[in-house]
Task: structure prediction
Amino acid sequence: MKREIDRMLTLFRTETKLLSFLLSSIRRHNAASIVSLTFILFFAGRGITEAHLPMPFLRGGYTAYSVPVAKPMGIGIKPIGKLYGLANLKQTLTHIGGKIGFQAKRTESNQNLEEVLRAFKTVLSGNDIDTAQLLHACRAHLALMKSGGASLRLVAKDLESNLLKAEKPFKKLPKQGKTLYSLLESERHSGIHKEGNELENESAAMGLLWIRRSLSFQMDLFESSLVSQNGKHPGVAAIDAYERHLSPYHGWMLQKVFPLSLSAMPKRSAFIAAFGGTDEPVNPAHEEEIVRKLKALISTWRPIIKRWREDFESLNLEDTRPA
Result:
């Protein structure tokens, strides 16, 4: 009895310190991200029969996740049912990532990759980015991410959230936003953003900023791990790409949590198979076709992303605040 009381007191003190830390972090970082992680950690230590969790992504993207728990469990205890304790945070994030459901069929992946390549080839019109074509291409890319397996589901959900932010103002004033530059300029002149380059969270600029960062991350990941058989393991490549393209804009908490989910990336053959619409290793000819399309997609993305960044920088919209 005494041991059980001591154990409960220790757990209470640990959670109290954690709560104090998280609450103080809310004042410095993105509140929604901190609260979401709080739910994960605290439900892991209690007998909650079902938890509805808002999960943070790159910035602004969220999904709901219902977690069944068999019985109370303390921090550091072995996993019970579907949820894991603090000592098993990596497994928790991996499990949650695998449970965010999409209805797209895996057999569509190879067709989706071809559609994404065709769509992005129409985005640049001379030296300008055609907004309608960019949004269409991002929609096609969303379908590819949804059909690409569990490792890409968090990326897909984030893309979907930020794409909605970009589409809403464009649909209201399509003529004023014919090019990316004109869309961003029109929104800036509306006074929606704060002084300097602090963007309104629900603006098209904010959504497009994070879509660009996400595509830069993916471009680096694909180039360093998938297009060459001797490339890095996707998990290693993902973390390297994260450090270059996303980590500088993440707050302390996301910098600790996000790499854990990236480290669960499957090996190259599984990634290639996912893009080929199967769970089984693909034959050499099919792999060569997928790699050829990925190389072409990377080459297509590069000048688009360059111009995308230039448009943001020329309008002083490069919001570098941590998420």
Summary: The first helix runs from residue 2 to 26. Residues 94 and 261 are 6 Å apart (CA to CA). The two ends are 45 Å apart (CA to CA). Residues 11-87, 96-107 have pLDDT under 50 and may be disordered.
